Predict the structure.
Amino acid sequence: MPVLEVGGSHVTGAAVDLDRGRIADGTRRRLPLTPGVGPEEFLTTLAEAANGALSVPPAISATAAPDARGIRGTWGDTWGIAVPGPFDYARGIARYHGVGKFAALDGLAVGDLLTPRLNPRPARLRFLNDASAFALGVRHTAHAESRRLVAVTLGTGVGSAFLDRGTIVEDDPRVPPEGRVDLLTVDGRPLEDTVSTRAMTARYTDRTGRPVDGLRELTALAADNDATARDVITSALRALGAALAPWLTAFETDTVVFGGSITAAWPLIGPPLTAGLTHHDPRLARLTLSVPDDGEDQALLGAAVFAARGA
């Protein structure tokens, strides 16, 4: 099953072998994107990653990679494409307005414009939220026993997905509107004004007068005992835990999986996040908290799971 996974700074194309639960050998193609990318460059980069994923290098032999043979001819009918929101997933149209990323793509008919650039031209593109793809992939590979799984991705913004026995839940009183944690508020303001790359780096700069280049540098400063960086991260993650807690309780969640760039600093972010959760409801201490170290792979697998269901 061919898939694309679009992040805030990259796009990855691959062919997924769902039977084996892994990326087919030699098919991964990862290319950079910038938050200010324009429509033409965006579509060209996605097409390059997608077409490259189906072009298995000839050096790979049939003996070494039997799962990679014939991919272009047999796996190109339906693509699964994981993209961050806001996005009209049913129609394949970008809705990036006022969210601090991909602003030039707002209103872009990604599905209609990308399809003719793919070789072979697919019969169908199935778009889904990147956090939903991550959740489906994790459940497919590591948490098949989970009845109520919630995935939260932390990076440029906050993504989320709620799964009930493997089905994405978006319209239900037990979950936030559209299943989107980013629509929650903290002290009357949008959650991402507290928990996001831009919010945390801006808060650090406001307090110190020193600019910081993204979460990687901020978490590195915190790990190096920068008290301000540590306080910024701690406050933000406690707030996230407090915002999540009532919904995790209402959904009767048994597993919470965290992904995204900031999870590389889990020793820093895990304790305040857990404190925020349990302050609201001590019973949440019993939750299974999981941080896979192969988040991109999980999102690619989840996009394939989603595409296969509708193929």
Q: What stands out?
A: Residues 79 and 125 are 5 Å apart (CA to CA).
